Amino acid sequence: MSIQTLTSDMKRPKVVSAKEWEVARQKLLVREKELTRARDALAAERRQMPWVAVEKKYEFDGPKGKASLLDLFDGRRQLIIYRAFFEPGVHGWPEHACIGCSMVADQVAHPAHLNARDTTLVFASRASQKDIERLKKRMGWAFIPWYTITDDFDKDFGVHEWHGTNAFIRDGDKVFRTYFINSRGDEQMGSTWNYLDITALGRQEEWEDSPKGYPQTAPYEWWIWHDEHSDVPPSEGWNATVERGIQAGIGRRRRRS
């Protein structure tokens, strides 16, 4: 294997001591924390967004047959649908989905963590279930629920010509569209945190600025091992760990204030 070196015409930053490097890092950290707070504030604005009722009935094909939009929630309160382009006419067909959509799929965290926040993530394409299952097996995406669009869902929700992520919430059998993001906005998707940040209920943690009555729990207590996910309450040992983490965070904030 050849040894890679920087090109002579590359203008690189200066090399400094470890102490000088730490000073530079701390200076940048101030800006990074500002960005984090701005991101939290933007997510709070999303939770104040109005909802629009979904009156039209939609039908998908799924691994278990026909499914309505309500069925895609899988009994949970929130639903996120990513429209992936995998169908005749798309570059890569029939072996692959769109390159960009495939990169998005590669980033998706295990859905059990979204499920723990009463949220379901699914992908939807125009390809048949047979082709989708073949693609999922080839690409290692078996854990992503993936449905076939059979009607005007993609056109009605702005994803018939370009990929995009729609967020929904349900109140009983009533479904509402709450948010939509596409283009470069989709680049950030894949992380559990970022998916929750585009939902109506957010991360559902006590520190969030959410409307009155929204479900919220202490930070960390909903974290799980995805292979042991269940509805059983966290153990006393885990609750104690959570409390130590919370108190440590409070202590750090006090010292910095």
Helix content: 25-40%
Roughly how many Å is the radius of gyration? 22 Å
- Characterize the largest beta sheet: strand count, sense, and whether it forms a barrel: 8 strands, mixed
Q: Quote the distance from N terminus to C terminus.
A: 51 Å
Overall structural class, as computed from helix and strand content, comes to alpha+beta
Query: What pattern of helices and strands is seen along the backbone?
Result: HEEEHEHHEHEHEEHH
CATH fold node name of the domain at 52-197? Glutaredoxin
Strand content: 15-25%
CATH superfamily of the domain at 52-197: Glutaredoxin
- What is the helix tally? 8
User: Which whole number gives the mean pLDDT?
Assistant: 90
What is the C-level CATH assignment of the domain at 52-197? Alpha Beta
- Which consecutive residue ranges, at least 5 long each, have pLDDT under 50? 252-257
What report would you give on this structure?
With 257 residues, the chain is α+β, with helices and mostly antiparallel strands. The protein has a domain at 52-197: Glutaredoxin (3-Layer(aba) Sandwich), CATH 3.40.30. Helix content is 35%, strand content 17%. It has helices at residues 18-47, 69-72, 99-107, 112-115, 129-139, 153-156, 192-197, 236-256; strands at residues 52-53, 59-62, 65-68, 78-83, 119-125, 146-149, 164-171, 174-182. The chain has an eight-stranded mixed beta sheet. Strand 7 (164-171) and strand 8 form a beta hairpin. The longest helix has 30 residues, at 18-47.
